[in-house]
Amino acid sequence: MSPEVETRSLAMEQPLYAGTEMAREAQGTLKKLGEALLGEAFVGNLLRYGVFASIAVCAIGAVLFLADYGFAGNVQPMIQYSARPAFPHSVAALGRGIAAFNPMALSALGLLLLVALRVFQVLLAAVTYVVRKNYKFAYISLFVFAVLMSSLFLGKAGG
Amino acid sequence: MLPAVFFGVVLLFSVAAGILGAILGLGGGVILVPFLALVMGLNIHYAIGASLVSVIATSSGAAAVYVRSKISNLKVGLFLSMATTVGAISGAYLAGIIPDRVLFIIFGVVLAYSALAMFRKRKTELPVGVVADRTSEYLELSDSYHDPALGRYVEYKVTGALPGLGLMYVAGAASGLLGIGSGILKVPAMDLVMRLPMKVSSATSNFMIGITAAASAAVYFLRGDINPFIAAPVAIGVLGGAMAGTHFLHNFTSSGIRTFFVVILVLVSLQMLLKGVGVAFY
Question: Which of residues 17 through 36 in chain A touch B, CB cutoff 8 A?
């Protein structure tokens, strides 16, 4: 067949199948999106980016602190153990510190985000197992998550 | 010392601890606590608080790589974490009851025994003749991974699931008591009792220690034991080191890692035993 005839016949064929083809493609993309959201690649990436973000927050706080106090005076007062420390050690104090733009509070926030991310990872695993209908491990993951959450409340009560 | 210098020194050492931790399945606590308390002269509370942070950082840095590359066994890790988390909470409460010296002696003995058992296995590259037990079959824990040092896929079975669970409770309690991730107890338990390949034990331990430490972290934070000025360089350094360290695991052989681990076990065991009989370095 000559090239012009070829192109014309292709052009004639397209309108007939375009609708279904596009619909099929859309369905395929949605399915891939759904799989991607709950797939291991997404969870793995979420954790990686979350870790980077948390440590970045921590590092920014540290750099800001060092910019102010890094080269003046002794390190002793900053590392001296005290029963009533100057740095935040409650969520309320942390909130106040962040609001006051305290760099140490920002650093502490980054560290806590790192911890929270691990807890969140377990919850995410539970959800993934439920979706994949692996109920044995959904229960196992939920159990671990429950114990982790209860440590928070027990910690508050005891500490 | 200038604060910036302190920060830099701690940061550098933490990178080394992170690399080591990622390869051996430890959180770096066993190396960091002596360093922070002895060399940097920090109060033990702050050393342990920072160590806890380092465990979480090592775990976060290493686990992302290991879980994706399927070297760590996620199912085994989650299953065993049921026991470590409960243990961690118990440990925090038990801290007030059992005398410290008794604890150090117990741990010293356990670590010494682990060192001996792993030393005997040091030439063994991969476990042979492992038959999955009922629990492992039920939970379908057995898996396979690609070992670049051997250049092939390794299929393995899991056994001793319930004894492993019991040991993990103890490891968790150690974590709650001492603020460590107790990879130092988890790796031998998985290697010797559950008969997992060494690299899988190490990688799975890396995944688990983060979860265990997270269970204790809230308590330590609220007690004011986590000083951000100390914990920040530790976290940053260890994270960087752990991510770099994951790439080295590929190239080591399992027997190489095991031998390395035995050396660390012996050192820590000696330290614990000495503390138990009253010779305190920190």
Answer: none
Contact state of A62 with B215 under an 8 Å Cβ cutoff = no
Residues A57 and A31 in one domain: no
When scoring A66, A82, A118, A129 by the number of chain B Cβ atoms within 10 A, the one with the most, hence best to mutate, is A118
User: Domain containing A111: what range?
Assistant: 39-158
Domain ranges for chain B, please list them: 3-276
Chain A nearest CA to B269, separation (Å):
28
Per-residue pLDDT, A4: 53
Model confidence, pTM: 0.79
HSE-CB at B66 with a 13 A cutoff on CA atoms is 33
**Are residue A67 and residue A5 in the same domain, yes or no?**
no
User: Do A18 and A67 fall within a single domain?
Assistant: no
Q: Tell me the pairing of strands B143-147 and B152-156.
A: antiparallel
Q: Is B1's Cβ below 8 Å from some Cβ in A? A: yes
Asked if A151 lies within 8 A of B79 by C-beta distance, the reply is no
Q: Does the ipTM exceed 0.90?
A: no
Domain identity same for A50 and A89: yes
In contact, B215 and A147? CB cutoff 8 Å? yes
Looking at chain A, the number of H-run helices and the number of E-run strands are: 6, 0
Helix (H, G, I), strand (E, B) or coil at B146: strand
**Residue ranges for chain B with pLDDT beneath 50:** none
- Looking at the structure, tell me whether residues A32 and A44 fall in a common domain: no
Burial of B106 (0-12, 13-18, 19+ CB in 10 A): middle
A75 pLDDT exceeds 60?
yes
Same domain, A66 and A90: yes
pLDDT at A13 over 60: no
**A12, A88: one domain:** no
